[in-house]
Amino acid sequence: MDYQKLIEKVFLKTAEAGNPGKVASYIPELAHVSPEKFGVHMITLEGEHFAFGDSDEQFSIQSIAKVLALSLAYTIEGKEIWKRVGVEPSGTAFNSLVQLEADHGKPRNPLINAGAIVVCDILVSRLKDPKKELIAYIQKIADNPKINYCPTIAKSEKEHGFRNAALINFIKSFGNIHNPIDTVLDFYYCLCSIKMSCAEMARTFLFLANQGKDVVSGEEILTVSQAKRLNAIMQTCGFYDEAGEFTYRVGLPGKSGVGGGIIAVHPGKYAIAVWSPRLNEKGNSYRGMKFLEFFTTETASSIF
Amino acid sequence: MDYQKLIEKVFLKTAEAGNPGKVASYIPELAHVSPEKFGVHMITLEGEHFAFGDSDEQFSIQSIAKVLALSLAYTIEGKEIWKRVGVEPSGTAFNSLVQLEADHGKPRNPLINAGAIVVCDILVSRLKDPKKELIAYIQKIADNPKINYCPTIAKSEKEHGFRNAALINFIKSFGNIHNPIDTVLDFYYCLCSIKMSCAEMARTFLFLANQGKDVVSGEEILTVSQAKRLNAIMQTCGFYDEAGEFTYRVGLPGKSGVGGGIIAVHPGKYAIAVWSPRLNEKGNSYRGMKFLEFFTTETASSIF
Amino acid sequence: MDYQKLIEKVFLKTAEAGNPGKVASYIPELAHVSPEKFGVHMITLEGEHFAFGDSDEQFSIQSIAKVLALSLAYTIEGKEIWKRVGVEPSGTAFNSLVQLEADHGKPRNPLINAGAIVVCDILVSRLKDPKKELIAYIQKIADNPKINYCPTIAKSEKEHGFRNAALINFIKSFGNIHNPIDTVLDFYYCLCSIKMSCAEMARTFLFLANQGKDVVSGEEILTVSQAKRLNAIMQTCGFYDEAGEFTYRVGLPGKSGVGGGIIAVHPGKYAIAVWSPRLNEKGNSYRGMKFLEFFTTETASSIF
Amino acid sequence: MDYQKLIEKVFLKTAEAGNPGKVASYIPELAHVSPEKFGVHMITLEGEHFAFGDSDEQFSIQSIAKVLALSLAYTIEGKEIWKRVGVEPSGTAFNSLVQLEADHGKPRNPLINAGAIVVCDILVSRLKDPKKELIAYIQKIADNPKINYCPTIAKSEKEHGFRNAALINFIKSFGNIHNPIDTVLDFYYCLCSIKMSCAEMARTFLFLANQGKDVVSGEEILTVSQAKRLNAIMQTCGFYDEAGEFTYRVGLPGKSGVGGGIIAVHPGKYAIAVWSPRLNEKGNSYRGMKFLEFFTTETASSIF
């Protein structure tokens, strides 16, 4: 299949279909990004690269980084991690708080804010220098020492983070946060501040298409079983209240971020990253969703 | 791979692991089934059959039949069906009512009771003789004219169906039921009363592993795209509030019923049916879940 | 105090303050009432009558009749009634269903629909001819054999009663309805169909200002303690999600109906009925609320 | 009426009726109070005092102090206060968070934690030295310069205050907290730490039985209208999810605290304070509720 040609075709079809929705505006670093940015980068297990548009420009990957924190915590804790966070889809943000109450402070899954905060608490407990060790882990997976936190974004997130402060205090009232709140939140905001380009993001997540192994070095990042399970979690929980829609329309495990990025993985085949800042009403990239829907339809490449 | 040997091995391992949980008891037809029944039947796209235990004994497939009603309605309505029912996981039964209110009477997905009732309403609107045409459709897919409704079960369901009556009245108050309540409920209870053995169930659902085509006749039951999407819906919505857990542990699209049955489909490979009446606290077959977890781990055959 | 002069003054002040809001329109019998109707009638324990406006025109008292059904059931059951229905305010309609679930089918209080339906179920169990005996009871309290059900309204209510049908089925699924659903709903819709004028309504409810005794005959309708408690329930539960607002602004026990009527009682002093069909967004008479707020402010006659 | 004799009789009747329930234990200062403490103190508008049991021993009045903060804020803000906090009963703690979301960060009423925190935020905005001015205000009303905060309790509250920290952050995310979170919470915990005896508490709240005026000096603390409205709010919102039950059983406006205290007010007649640390399952003093129920039944002195 001529992926380059196909990506260009689908890219243009998506671009022509309009660009409604709104750029996230709760922090200036997101609000000031040009809403017309649009890039895509795909890497196959054979090592082929296909790209188009703004695929080399870095953006804030936001919640997509939660998958990497989970990967590290899962490596350290193994199955024990599921005592502190679940694997079920979360429904609406609205339900999130109600369900935290009903579930006695155990977040529904590790990819919503509440769950990622618990994952951060686990890493704070287990790592000597959490910030340093996490970014080293990500740089290694990404095979790229330039990937880093963005202090400006982390600072802005903190200043507007009353909801997250509410969540962590609520969870701590049930005993499911073991470290000081400020330490965990500080670490969490660093996690959310990571910047990557589509090219870097596709490279970083390629191990999830390769049964947990790095495609170049062959090093095991997750076991086969763990990689499958992490993909399963992305499938059911990666798109907030639109996980079902993404599964239905795109049919690949993936994760979106409020910065407009989406990573999707076809196990055994490829990883593909898309970026377009305007979000639909559920908070996922409008064009990112559209592109991936068209792309998997054209390639008939859903996992189903 | 020697599937027969593997199935026997996994069957015995599961059997040895205990059999906690409770048989559904809200109607006598379910309550009186022996809790120790345990059967499995697998069919590959190549037409090979592998079975063990009580695989030829019929049981009430209950909610599993919702997938077949959806398949028929999807064929008739196409994408229009999603105007009346969503594709998102539902969370707890508790949330179900709240979400119906929040979503103005549009059920979250077609595999929860509320959604299946709306699917039944659609079929009642579109078919001349809904009961007759639905069972004919199922018999054709199953390649088996003996599959049928069980009037005793349908009657019992109706007598204990106050929650379903509440649901349909609530949905009708939003205008999302177009036919008389009694007509729709009567049809719905027939749907839930269908009986199959594991062998029959695996045969019936095999088209979903075969891109929507019957493996023998080659006839198209769903288009490729529709079959993929129906699998996607089973993946995110097939196990009530345990869809994430099933996806995480088993990694295949599937659907469970309160009678203790589970169907799972590996697209491109096989369909497998398991039956064991004791249910875990989420209402899914305890042994059925365990068997499939062990089985997909042994065969490394999840879709992720 | 010159109550007649005061009532006229407050009436005109209220009339001048505008008449926003909407007439209830879910059944034609309510939708077709002139929105400019406005009447008031007050009776003191000394037997003085003061009236103004459309005080002698009958209208559908709707939920106000729930107080009378409760009064009869309370007389028959005594404290046992609180095993089947609570005395707590209900919050929003939205919460109503959630709380029914959380409270296992026991409605929060007898003045919301769910609770009044349970009260009707109790009367159906206890009375030989519920419709006949209830209206006889009301006619006696009202000292007026002309008070009656309106079959047209009862029929319309039934035809639009999907929400109530949902409620009663839901409650029955918890075992808190003992009689056939149709029998109870039929009786409930009769209760809601009663018509009275302001003059008749003030006379009917005067016993609640008089420690449970009829002011003319002296007959005990409720014991002193029961009358106090029924007033207490009206205070906390009489105005749907606006009970606190009414208590805050008016400071008297009362009950409103979707037909635009309000009854309020000052224990030891008087009963006062107001009618104006336009409803505020919480479903209570816009002018009725305003009139009573102005009136109790002018007379400094709240119970607080 | 011989109130002294009556109080002793009702006290003994209550004491004999058992003392189930649990002392609040989330902070040591509450957990270490003897569960058998039991005191009562009543003051009439004529200045008569009647007391029995441990009526002169100070205890932590906890949430009862919220009424005094509200009184001060109401004096300063007037009706404007209702733009930031409502007057409706709150239902369960569970619903509290849901309703905050539904109401966009406006708490249901000023006597639940969320609402009292907003009241504290208002006072922090309006007062130069909030802690000093609030306690001066309370000392004046109490006619007692010895009433004060308890720093040990305030400190303990803060250390266990994750739920309150969650609430205030959540409210601030909606913009309904104007000052720094730590400043407001610090002030709030001081408010909750105030200690009084039954004798002191009855004296402090007597102005609410006297149309807002101090009984000795005649000074206006609240206007007549404001005093009525504050009583109305206590009636519908003073007992968490048991406001209806208290209204039904006792029939007086009042407020309870988790330290086992209850204040109740009979407008135009008296104020009465009760203290007994064991709480029922709704978090209100078991014996306090019982005593007041028996007392108002004996004296037939409910406001209804």
Q: Compute the separation of the termini of chain A in Å.
A: 19 Å
> Tally of extended strands of chain A?
7
Number of separate domains of chain A: 2
Tell me what the CATH architecture of the largest domain in chain A is.
Answer: 3-Layer(aba) Sandwich
Helix vs. strand class of chain A? alpha+beta
Report the total helices of chain A.
Answer: 13
CATH topology of the largest domain in chain A: Beta-lactamase
Order of helices and strands of chain A: HHEEEHHHHHHHEHHHEEEH
Percent in strands of chain A: 5-15%
* Strand arrangement in the largest pleated sheet of chain A: 2-1-7-6-5
CATH class annotation of the largest domain in chain A? Alpha Beta
Multimeric state = homotetramer
Question: Low-confidence segments of chain A, ≥5 residues, pLDDT <50?
Answer: none
Query: What general form of chain A does the structure show?
Result: globular
Give average pLDDT of chain A, whole number: 95
* Main sheet specs of chain A: 5 strands, antiparallel
Q: How would you describe this structure to a colleague?
A:
Four copies of one chain form a homotetramer. In chain A, α1 crosses α13 and α6 packs across α10. Chain A is globular. Chain A is built from 13 helices and seven strands. The first copy, chain A, is of the alpha+beta class. The mean pLDDT of chain A is 95. Chain A has a five-stranded antiparallel sheet, with helices on both faces. In chain A, strands 3-4 form a two-stranded antiparallel sheet. Chain A folds into two domains: 162 residues, DD-peptidase/beta-lactamase superfamily (Beta-lactamase, 3-Layer(aba) Sandwich), CATH 3.40.710; 130 residues, Probable Glutaminase Ybgj, Chain: A, domain 2 (Orthogonal Bundle), CATH 1.10.1500.
